[in-house]
Every structure is written in structure tokens, then in C-alpha cells.
Amino acid sequence: MQKIAIFASGSGSNFQAIINSIENGFITNVSCEILVCDKPNAFVIERANRLGISTLVLNPKDFNSKESYELEILNKLNEKEINFIVLAGYMRLIGSTLLNAYEGRMVNIHPSLLPKYKGKDAIKQAYEANELEYGITVHYVDSGMDTGSIIEQMSLTTDSRDLSYIESEIHKLEHILYPKVIKSLLSEV
Ligand code: GRF
After folding, report:
1. C or N terminus of the chain, fewer CB within 10 Å?
2. pTM score, whole prediction
3. Which atom of ligand 1 is nearest to the CA of 111?
4. Is 158 a pocket residue for ligand 1 (Cβ < 6 Å)?
5. What angle do CA 135, 151, 137 make, to 5 degrees?
6. Across the 189 residues of the chain, what is the mean pLDDT of every consecutive 10-residue run?
């Protein structure tokens, strides 16, 4: 059994999609042992509570360094024997403490066709550039922002100028692709 931790900062729709895929048997041999969240008011915490998944909610401002913040997380991950980290809307760069422990065992999803449109508001960046091709990328995490090696991408071609429509279509793709990639990286065939 692979024990994963999911890190998220926001609404947690990707978190939910992954848990659904574990619960409905699409992803096998994987259990999500903990949600790590850096935003005490994030909706994802409510989702985890409803699903009965334990949470570690920490405010980085309560720590005097990134290292001490990440050490607290790392201790918890060690205690729970976590062997893989899934970032799902975790709006923070991973520092050396977690990277040294989990590099090659940590993935992220980003709503653009990387290497284009890294960082925040990636869908809006593509929209403002009048792109006709949008997309999503699952990649390994390294010390940069959305720079790790690419595992899989999916694209969406549209000439719509309705940003909220594009965003919702992109999120639908994320909820398909991320569980699929996690399954292929982690499950027994
Ligand atoms: C997703 O678009 C993901 O690609 C990005 O952050 C967003 C998180 O959305 N990294 P949600 O919290 O999973 O709904």
C-alpha cells in the first residue's frame, strides 16, 4: 500500500477528485493518510473533515523560517510513513527540507501547457495572450516554480472568450488527468 499526503491551499476540487478515485476503486493500492494545508480557512479542510481524512493545518507565519515550517510537516509525514506527496493547488514553493526528503516522489498539477504560463493565474495568462490552445500539466516537483520534469499533459482547444467557461473546462480535465497519472505512478497493475 502506497501512503500519500495531499497538499492543498484552496477549494480542493482536485483533492476531492483523487479521493473519489481511491474510494470508487479507480486508484488501487493507495491510501491518502493526510491533507496538509497552509491556509486555515481553506475549503479543502472541510472536504477532508467530511471525508474523514486527517489534516495538518499550519500557518507558515507562525514559524520563523521555511525550514522550521517544513520540518514540522516532515515530522508528521515520517510519523505517518508517507511515501509520496501530491500537490493539488498548494500555493507555495517547496523548500529544500521537503525536497531533499521527497524529490522524485512529489508531483504537482498546473493549469497550463508548461513551459508556458508558469505561476499564478495561468489560465488567465493564456486567455489574455489570446491562446486558442489551453491545457494542463502534471509534473515532478523541483525547487523552481512549475519547472519540474513533465509527466503528462492534456490540451483543450477553444476559441471561446468566456474565461469562466474555459476555467471550468480546464478543471474538468484536471479531475480526469490527475487521478489517472497518480494511478499509473502508484498503483499496482
Ligand atoms: C488547479 O487549477 C491546479 O491546477 C492549480 O491550483 C488549482 C487548484 O484547484 N495548481 P482546486 O483547489 O483543486 O479546486
Report:
1. C
2. 0.97
3. 4
4. no
5. 20
6. 98 98 97 98 98 98 98 98 98 98 97 98 98 98 97 98 98 98 87
